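ARCHIVE RECORD
Type: protein–small molecule complex
Small molecule: nicotinamide-adenine-dinucleotide
Source of inputs: curated submission
Record status: active
Notes field left blank by submitter.
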Amino acid sequence: MDKDDFIVVTGAGGFIGGHLVGSLVRQGHRRIRAVDKKPMSSWYQLHPEVDSLQRDLTDRAACDQVARGAAVVYNLAADMGGMGFIESHKADCMLSVLINTHMLMAARQHQVRDYFFASSACVYAADKQTDADVVALRESDAYPALPEDGYGWEKLFSERMCRHFREDFALRTRTARYHNVYGPWGTYDGGREKAPAAICRKVIEAKLSGRHEIEIWGDGEQTRSFMYIDDCIEGTQLIMHGANTEPVNLGSDQLVSINQLADIAEAIAGIKLHRRYRLDAPKGVRGRNSDNTMIKALYDDWAPSIRLEDGLERTYRWIYDQIIAGRQAQLAAGD
Ligand code: NAD
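STRUCTURE (tokenized, with ligand):
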């Protein structure tokens, strides 16, 4: 990708988008437009070198405005969160279809060359994820379609939109199916947080309060794989630069249970907590892992390389610092 390419990143005020913009800036890209619906004071990362805009990209006119002149679009904007959010906000999640549809239309109109869509492991058929000791999901397992209701259907539909814009209108689209990305500068409270950040936060709160217990959603034996943000950013750009245009898994294949994830967070904190299991809480599928055969075959044996123990430690430290800073700010404000 040319350093002079004009690159648009949507969802840039969010977790992955903020890291992607940072990575592009560090690589020397100078013409970057970062877009998000949130007010800029709520963006996780703001990069002064780039043109940052607050726009709601469900609106077609806003998409036209941000895509004008762009050679490359990374579409990461979506109304999303962890299980607690997507199971109770299915309509909101499906409305993200407006973002990708309008961004594709704008990209076509303004002759964007390369277009990236952030899809999800939630596209995979639920009946292939019923066992904690799950067989890792291959790309072909998305069909026959039975994705996560709401969020997963939107992702699967938008993947197809990308495919047909590529086939019918020659827009070069790439699609990655992200599997649980975690790391610093992301959501760790408020209801949209995902398991790694939620567990770090709960362990930190237990440590700071001295109440040595933790609530776990489900029985804790459900399994997942978690990819550290640096691997996600590297893999995203690899996929964007490569020739493959079919959806490809981008995720770790280090399968762990939620109980094992909590074990790691406790070890980082140096404490042991009593676990209260909330069996009625949202928990998603029983088991999910990424089969990385395709990504390895396409990109010279590439796969995520950061161990969960290492990535979670960095995430824990960042959330810890945020919580302490928040408490100090409250104290200073006299709350
Ligand atoms: P995030 O919620 O931190 O970032 C998404 C951003 O999109 C938010 O800042 C939000 O304000 C913005 N947005 C929402 N609606 C918008 C709109 N109408 N117009 C403009 N901006 C809008 O989430 P993330 O973890 O950074 O996820 C980025 C992308 O990756 C999303 O498409 C998500 O579905 C996908 N994904 C993420 C994960 C993960 O584990 N984080 C897993 C699978 C897929």
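CURATOR ANNOTATION: The mean pLDDT is 96.
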